[in-house]
Amino acid sequence: MKVKIKGSIYLENDSFQYILKKYSGKTDKKGVPTYEILGYFSSLEASIMKIFRMKISESKAKDLKELRKDIQIANDEIRELLGAEYEKKRP
């Protein structure tokens, strides 16, 4: 599986893990696209949490009120990426 998350961020998996990658915009000598590994995860949920933490780390908040707003925006973006069906299935 290889799924484009957003922009240049991709999620792949093999039989053991999920791999979050960012396309570098470059290719190797053989013309194969190169990626920066953002992390290896044992579950889909863990990889989604990494995306959330990445979004929060981009925050320019100067106080807790601004940070809270940025957290809500990140939550909304993650929900939009996952779609309504995922929300319905969560316990």
Layout of strands and helices, then pairs:
Layout: E1 2-6, E2 9-13, E3 18-27, E4 33-41, H1 44-57, H2 64-82, H3 84-89
Q: Which short descriptors sum up this protein?
A:
91 residues; four-stranded antiparallel β-sheet; 4 strands; globular
Tally of discrete structural domains: 1
Order of neighbouring strands in the sheet with most strands: 1-2-3-4
Helical content (DSSP H or I, runs of 4+): 40-55%
What is the mean pLDDT? 89
What share of the residues does DSSP label as strand, in percent? 25-35%
The DSSP helix count reads 3
What are the secondary-structure elements, in order, as H or E?
A: EEEEHHH
Structural class: alpha+beta
Task: Classify the oligomer.
Answer: single chain
User: What's the number of extended β-strand segments?
Assistant: 4
**Terminal Cα separation, in Å?**
25 Å
Tell me what the structure shows.
- The protein is α+β, with helices and mostly antiparallel strands and 91 residues long.
- It has one domain (2-89).
- 43% of the residues lie in helices and 32% in strands.
- It has three helices and four strands, in the order ββββααα.
- It has helices spanning 44-57, 64-82, 84-89, and strands at 2-6, 9-13, 18-27, 33-41.
- Strands 1-2-3-4 form a four-stranded antiparallel β-sheet.
- β1 and β2 form a beta hairpin.
- α1 packs antiparallel against α2 (64-82).
- The radius of gyration is 15 Å and the shape is globular.
- The two termini are 25 Å apart.
